[in-house]
Description:
The protein is mainly alpha-helical. Helix content is 74%, strand content 3%. The chain has a two-stranded antiparallel sheet. The chain starts with 8 loop residues before the first helix and ends with a helix.
Amino acid sequence: MEKVQSKxxxxxxxxxxxxxxxxxxxxxxxxxxxxxxxxxxxxxxRNTLREAIRSLVxxxxxxxxxxxxxxxxxxxxxxxxxxxxxxxxxLVEVLExxxxxEREAAxxxxxxxxxxxxxxxRSLLASWKEAAEQxxxxxxxxxxxxxxxxxxxxxxxAMFMEMxxxxxxxxxxxxxxxxxxxxxxxKDIRMHTELLSAIEAQNPLKASECVKKYLGALxxxxxxxxxxxxx
Length: 231
């Protein structure tokens, strides 16, 4: 890594940090190094570094989380563009993208998952069920996303995970738009349990079918409601 030189120091520091992010120097969700380390590495002052970091937070590369610090949110301009597009997309488009991504990831997870990953999925699914039973919508959404993220991680494909992280805000909103905890019934629980069972049994075809079943049903439901509304 080259130390920045004068011109506008903030811009040069910003460019250096962007390059590091785009090269994947730090993983999505990972904290960036402490200020003294970055100041020494880039040869800049604390104020210059903080200005560059603020710009990267505003641009969507980084995010500052209370109690955690500054973490990586995106590796590239493509991620940011995709986030923006997803925010503008309609609910069916979001679900169709989830369907394509999660089906493939579930197949790979069934073939590649480890015992540790399987245990994580079991724990998250149990927490999801508990949140549904107790009517805790915030916890329900968090646990639902965490469960599907664990499936995608188990696929062993880092690009799947990056893509999912890029659309996570839209996934979060789509679940809030759709859930009615009073109607989360045994069918919903069974479909998620079947997905976990298929991954445990290392049956990729069954895992793919499970994803198609629960996301496909949501898409059909929304399309039917829209059709009836237009009558």
